[in-house]
Each structure stands twice: as C-alpha cells, then as structure tokens.
Amino acid sequence: MKKLLAFCLALPMAVLGQSLDGVNPEHLAAYPSQPSLKAREIKRISLKTGVELEYVEQGGRAGVPLVLLHGLSDSWRSFQSVLPHFPHSIRAFAISQRGHGDSQRPATGYATPDFAADIAAFVEQLQLGPVIIVGHSMGGVNAQQFAIDYPRLVKALVIID
C-alpha cells in the first residue's frame, strides 16, 4: 500500500511542478495530509447521464483535480486509506461508479462508454476542467475510455493494476 501511495502522490506532484524524488514511502507521513475520511461527508450528485453517484471530496477548491476510480465490485472506499495522505493542493474525488457502492444501479448502461460518460458529466457538472484521472482495474479501463472520448477533460492518466 505504501508503494501505491507513493505512486499516486508522485504524478499529481509532478503535474504541480513538485518532486518526490528520494522520498522514502515510510516518510510520507511528513507531507501535509487531510483529516480522516471518517469525518468527511459522503456526497451525491445527479448527472445528466441519468444516474446518481456517491463520492467523497477533499482538498482545496483551487487544488489540482484528481478523480479516483475503483475496480469491479468495489466503491470509493477502496481509496479510503490513501486519500488522507494527499496534500491540500490536490482536490481529490473518489467516486463510486454506477452500480457500485451506494451509487444508483440502473437496469442498463454498464458498457465502458457509459462509465466514461458518467465521469465526463461529473467533471463538467462540477466544472473541474482537465483532471488527473486514476483508475484501478475496471476503473482503469473506464479511465482509458474517458481519456479517449474526452481528451479535453484530461490532464493526466494513471492506471493502477
């Protein structure tokens, strides 16, 4: 998990023009971090794609937007232990994709382009501009489709597997 945390921090920090070179993952606690997500509000958003998704958000409103997508049969909670370690300069969003977690479970619409359209609607509705999109497993496939279909909304793409 510490290697995953170091990797997830490295790309956003590089985009911000900062570096984690030489940082031992054991010392990540020295970086400014967010409070525990146990105290965070779980939010919901109704998208123009017709689904309602749950998500959590943290970081400064002016921070670099980072969208985290979980794998199959998981939820935003798969990032719960990583999120508190992101610096305040990262505006992180962990989303439970359609049919997962406590997000809406429509009868249809589970093709990869449907998930990508949800992400685009989320980014556009919250007016996030280009985002760093991070996907694990199924979330990685959806993140890739999002990058292909909506390149203007992508600052960087990270696939975790």
Name a few traits of the molecule:
single chain; 161 residues; 23% strand
Q: In brief, what are we looking at here?
A:
This protein has about 160 residues and is α/β, with parallel strands linked by helices. Helix content is about 25%, strand content about 25%. The chain has three helices and six strands.
Largest sheet: 6 strands, mixed
| Uncertain residue ranges | 18-25, 27-31
Helix content: 10-25%
Element order: H for helix, E for strand: HEEEEHEHE
Q: What is the straight-line distance between the termini?
A: 12 Å
Largest beta sheet: strand ordering: 1-2-4-3-5-6
| Overall outline | globular
User: Beta fraction of the residues?
Assistant: 15-25%
Number of strands: 6
Q: What integer is the average pLDDT?
A: 85
Output the number of helix runs: 3
Cα radius of gyration in angstroms: 15 Å
Structural class by helix and strand composition: alpha/beta
Describe the structure.
It is a single chain. Helix 2 crosses helix 3. The chain is of the alpha/beta class and 161 residues long. It contains three helices and six strands.
Secondary structure blueprint with pairings:
Layout: H1 2-15, E1 43-46, E2 52-58, E3 64-69, E4 90-96, H2 112-125, E5 131-136, H3 138-149, E6 154-160
Parallel strand pairs: 3-4, 3-5, 5-6
Antiparallel strand pairs: 1-2, 2-4
Helix pairs in contact: 2-3
